[in-house]
Amino acid sequence: MSRIWMVRHGRAAAGFGAELDPGLDDHGRAQAEAVADRLAPLGPLPMVVSPLRRCRETAAPLEARWGVTARVDPDVGEI
Length: 79
What we know:
By secondary structure, the chain is mainly alpha-helical. The protein contains two helices and two strands; from the N terminus they run αβαβ.
């Protein structure tokens, strides 16, 4: 049986409506590192990420640990 791991982006630097495509704030970057630590033993696995900056920044630590590049897919932009 296949598994799909879905991860919500870390905390954004700006709230909804304040900025069009904010990245992560310091807490969000720490969240991204923590989820990468948790998922690192499972891979490397294929990764698909939203084109939103906060999502790409959340994926970056896991990409680095696995040595992969996530596929950016606009179809997962807002689920």
